[in-house]
Specification:
The complex is a heterodimer of chains A (269) and B (246).
Chain A: E1 2-11, E2 14-24, E3 29-33, H1 40-48, E4 55-60, E5 63-64, H2 70-77, E6 80-83, H3 95-106, H4 111-124, H5 140-152, E7 158-162, H6 170-186, E8 190-195, H7 198-204, E9 207-212, E10 215-220, H8 231-237, H9 241-255, H10 264-268
Parallel strand pairs in A: 3-8, 3-9, 6-7, 7-8
Antiparallel strand pairs in A: 1-2, 1-4, 4-5, 9-10
Chain B: H1 3-16, H2 24-64, H3 73-113, H4 116-122, H5 127-164, H6 170-178, H7 183-209, H8 215-244
Classes of the chains: A alpha/beta (269), B mainly alpha (246).
C-alpha cells in the first residue's frame, strides 16, 4: 500500500502539488486523472522518487520513501515497475535485451532462466516473435506492451503507468487498459495509472483521484464517478455532449433518473 | 543558471558516480563497450589527423629553417618535440572533444529526453555510476592510448613527408629523432592526455545528463559541451605547461 500524506511540490514560485493526501489501494488500479498541467505527472514522479517533494510523506508499506537514504530507496525501487509515456525502451537494445536488462542487473539467474522469464512475460503481454527486433521496428502499441513486459519482469509490487494510452488509437488503448487491469489482478500489484483517457477511467478505474491545479479535487471509483456532483470533475470527464449523454444513459440505467438540468425525453429519443 | 551553480552541479554529478555497483559484471560490460566506442570508434580520425599533422609539421619546419648552419636532422627533432608536446595531446584531444564529446552528450541527452535515464533510476540503478562513470573511465583508458598512437604516427608522417619531398634522408631524420630526446616530454604529454580525457568525457556527460527539452536542446547541449570542452582543454593546456615545463 502507498500512502501519501500532505504532499507539496513546487518549482520556483509555482506550487504544482498542493497538500495532496491519498491512499493508493493495494491490488487495485489507482487512476490519477486531471487536465494537462494539473500536476499528475509531477505527483507520480514524486511517488517514484524522480522528484523530491518540498514537504509531506510518501509511505510504502509504512516506510517513509522521502526520508530514506539511497540504499534503502534502491530496495523500494526494486519493487517498482514503471511504464513510461514514450515507453522509454533502450534504443540500442533488442526487445529481448530490453526486458532481460533488469534480470541481468538484479539476478544471478542463468541465461536460459532469464530467457524463459523474458518469453513468459512477452507471452503475457501477447507479443510473439519480437525478441530480436529493435524498438524502432515496433508500433506504438507494441512498444507499450514491451514496456509493460519490462516493468513486470521482476515481479514488482507496484506498477506505475504514465499516460499508457498516449499516442495510441482507441482500440489499442483498450487492449493496453485491459492488459494493465489483468496484470494488476493476476500479480496482485498495486497499480497507479496517470491518464486523461476516459475509456481507462470507466474501464479500469477501481480507485480514481481527480486532480485540479495541483489539488486533489475528488476521489472515488468508476462506479461512483457517474453520480458525482463535483462540477469540476463533471466538466473534465464529461466534456463533450456525447459523453454527457453516455453518463445520463448510465444513470438512467442504474437509477431510473438523470440530472435535473437535462431533458430525459430528448436523451431517450 | 550561473557558472558557479553549473560547476557545483557538475561536481555533484562526479561525486554521485561513486557508489557500489548494483552488478559488477554489467558495469564491466558497459566499460568495455565504451572502450570500444571511444577507442576503436575514434581510431580512424586519429590516424588520419596524426599522420598529416606530422607530415605538414616536417614540411613547414623545413620551410622555416633556411640557414645552412642548422643541420637537417634538427627538422626531425622539432617535429618530434612539437608532436609529442603539443600536437598529439592537444590537437588530437580537441578533435576528440568534437568526435567523442558530441557523441557522449547526444547519447545521454537522448536517453534523458526519452526517459531512458528515468527508467534506469526507477529500476534502482545509479545512473551516474552506470552511464557516466564507464564513459569517463573508458576515456581515461583509451584517449592516452590514442595519443601515444598519434605520437608515433605523427613522427612517422613527418619522416615520410621529409623523405618523399627530398628535404632530408631517412638516416638524417632518424639521427634527429634520437638527438636530445627528453623522456619527460612523453610523461608530460601523458599527463596532458589524462587531463584532457577527463575533460572530454565528463563535460559532455554533464551537458547530456542534465539536458531538458527535446531534439533541439540535445543539439544545443551537444554543441555547448564541445565548445566548453575545447576551451577547458586550452585552459588546462596552458596551466599544465606553466606548472610542469619549468
Amino acid at each position: 500500500m502507498i500512502e501519501v500524506k500532505n504532499l507539496k511540490k513546487g518549482f520556483g514560485d509555482k506550487t504544482v502539488i498542493n497538500d495532496v493526501s491519498v491512499v493508493m489501494q493495494a491490488g487495485k488500479c489507482n487512476l490519477i486523472i486531471g487536465a494537462s498541467g494539473s500536476g499528475k505527472t509531477v505527483f507520480m514522479k514524486c511517488l517514484v522518487g524522480l522528484f523530491t517533494p518540498d514537504s509531506g510523506e510518501i509511505l510504502y508499506d509504512g516506510q517513509d520513501f522521502t526520508d530514506m537514504n539511497d540504499e534503502s530507496r534502491k530496495e523500494i525501487r526494486k519493487q517498482i515497475g514503471m511504464l513510461f509515456q514514450g515507453s522509454a525502451l533502450f534504443d540500442s537494445q533488442t526487445v529481448e535485451q530490453n526486458i532481460m536488462f533488469p534480470l541481468n542487473m538484479f539476478t544471478n539467474d542463468s541465461y536460459q532462466q532469464k530467457l524463459a522469464r523474458v518469453n513468459e512475460v512477452l507471452e503475457r503481454v501477447n507479443l510473439k516473435d519480437v525478441n530480436k527486433k529493435f524498438p524502432a521496428e515496433l508500433s506504438g502499441g507494441m512498444k507499450k506492451r514491451v514496456g509493460i513486459a519490462r516493468a513486470i519482469v521482476l515481479n514488482p509490487k507496484y506498477l506505475f503507468c504514465d499516460e499508457p494510452n498516449s499516442g495510441l488509437d482507441p482500440q489499442t488503448s483498450l487492449v493496453i487498459d485491459k492488459l494493465i487491469a489483468e496484470i494488476t489482478r493476476e500479480y496482485n500489484i498495486t497499480t497507479i495509472v496517470n491518464t486523461h483517457d476516459m475509456n481507462s477511467v470507466m474501464e479500469i478505474g477501481d480507485h480514481i483521484i481527480y486532480m485540479h491545479k495541483g489539488v486533489k479535487e475528488w476521489e472515488g471509483s468508476n462506479k461512483e464517478i457517474i453520480f458525482s456532483k463535483n462540477e469540476l470533475l463533471n466538466e473534465f470527464i464529461f466534456a463533450s455532449e456525447f459523453l454527457k449523454d453516455a453518463k445520463d444513459m448510465r444513470m438512467l440505467e442504474q437509477t431510473g433518473k438523470i440530472d435535473n438540468n437535462r431533458n430525459m425525453d430528448e436523451l431517450i429519443k | 543558471m550561473t557558472l558557479f551553480t553549473e560547476f557545483g552541479r557538475y561536481l555533484l554529478m562526479i561525486k554521485g558516480m561513486f557508489s557500489k555497483p548494483e552488478n559488477g559484471k554489467m558495469y564491466w560490460k558497459e566499460l568495455m563497450h565504451q572502450c570500444v566506442e571511444i577507442g576503436i570508434g575514434s581510431l580512424g580520425i586519429v590516424v588520419i589527423i596524426s599522420f598529416f599533422m606530422g607530415a605538414v609539421s616536417a614540411l613547414q619546419t623545413a620551410y622555416q629553417l633556411v640557414s645552412p648552419v642548422i643541420p637537417k636532422s634538427t627538422i626531425a627533432q622539432i617535429v618530434r618535440d612539437t608532436v609529442i608536446l603539443e600536437f598529439s595531446p592537444t590537437l588530437v584531444c580537441i578533435v576528440l572533444a568534437g568526435v567523442v564529446g558530441s557523441k557522449i552528450a547526444s547519447e545521454l541527452g537522448n536517453m534523458r529526453v526519452s526517459e531512458q535515464i528515468d527508467a534506469l533510476e526507477i529500476m534502482g540503478i545509479n545512473t551516474k555510476a552506470y552511464l557516466v562513470m564507464p564513459k569517463i573511465l573508458a576515456a581515461l583508458i583509451m584517449i592516452p592510448l590514442l595519443v601515444v598512437i598519434s605520437m608515433a604516427l605523427g613522427i612517422y608522417g613527418g619522416r615520410l613527408a621529409g623523405v618523399l619531398s627530398g628535404i632530408l634522408s631517412p638516416a638524417q631524420y632518424d639521427k634527429g629523432l634520437l638527438g636530445n630526446y627528453q623522456p619527460y616530454n612523453v610523461f608530460f604529454a601523458l599527463i596532458k592526455a589524462y587531463t584532457f580525457a577527463f575533460i572530454i568525457s565528463s563535460i559532455p556527460a554533464y551537458y547530456g545528463y542534465y539536458v531538458e527539452g527535446g531534439a533541439l536542446e540535445i543539439g544545443r547541449s551537444s554543441t555547448k559541451s564541445v565548445v566548453v570542452s575545447c576551451v577547458s582543454i586550452l585552459f588546462a593546456d596552458y596551466v599544465l605547461a606553466a606548472l610542469l615545463l619549468q
